[in-house]
Write a structure and sequence with these properties.
Layout: E1 50-52, E2 58-60, H1 61-75, E3 107-108
Antiparallel strand pairs: 1-2, 1-3
């Protein structure tokens, strides 16, 4: 074992040998992303009856239903509602677990009106 030599004092070191204390910088929370700033990736308009898929895509509820229904129809196979292989996000093709054609497996987003009095 070697002999340890004390480190020279530096402005970053506390006299007690503790790690330097730096001032805590608080960053403001990010601005919320309002629903009207999004566009539906299917019809390219503001999402009506906005729906969030498990993979994180926001689109019109009707566009999502139409896209999933069209994908199932293209298979040419009679598909049971519970068969997950054909219920996929129209944007990234991720499976939508729990899809039942009536809102199961997705989250309906409700617009919230904010008013400011001042």
């Amino acid at each position: 074992m070697g002999i340890s030599t004390p480190l020279p004092e530096s402005p970053d070191r506390q006299p007690s040998g503790e790690a330097p204390r730096r001032p805590t910088v608080l960053t403001p929370p990010p601005h919320p992303e309002y629903l009207h700033t999004f566009s539906c990736p299917v019809c390219f308009s503001a999402p009506s009856n906005a729906t969030l898929t498990p993979c994180g895509h926001i689109m019109c509820g009707e566009c999502l239903f139409s896209a999933v229904s069209a994908a199932v129809a293209r298979t040419g196979v009679s598909v049971l509602i519970s068969d997950l292989r054909f219920h996929r996000c129209p944007v990234c093709r991720a499976v939508i677990p729990g899809w039942d054609g009536r809102g199961g497996g997705v989250i309906g987003l409700k617009p919230k009106v904010l008013t400011e009095l001042g």
